[in-house]
Amino acid sequence: MLKKVPISELKVGMYVLLDLAWYEHPFLKNEFRISSKSEIEKIKGLGLTEITIDEKQSIISDEASPPVEEEATEEEKTPTIDTSILLEVLKDKAIEPEKKASLIRLHSTQIMKKLFEEPTRSNIKEVKKVAAGIADCIIKDDKTTFLLISMTNFDFTTYNHSVNVGFLALALAKSVFANSPHHDLQELGAGFFLHDIGKIKIDNAIIQKPAPLTEEETLKMRRHPQLGLKVLLEMGFATNEARLIVVQHHEKMDGTGYPKGLRGEDIHPYARICTVADVFDALTSRRPYRDPLPTFQALKLMRDEMVPHHVERKLFEQFVLLFKPPE
Ligand SMILES: [Fe+2]
Question: How far is the CA of 128 from the centre of ligand 1 (A)?
Answer without folding.
Answer: 18
